[in-house]
User: What shape does this take?
Amino acid sequence: MIEDTDIWRAANLLVKMHGANAAIVAAQRADELLAEGDMDGLEVWKRIAQATEQFLRNKPEDGEAVN
Assistant: This one.
């Protein structure tokens, strides 16, 4: 199991490298892994894609606590 901190590090690097396209890049990688039948890799990249979306959000969701 990949640790959450590693997922966030990977997402942060994708955002630095690809900017607003980071979530798309992560989703494309997830699709590639699905096509290869790598279900473990797929799950990791789905988590990375979700984390990149969180990095790229501009405002909190309804009812979400703000620090």
The chain has a mean pLDDT of 92.
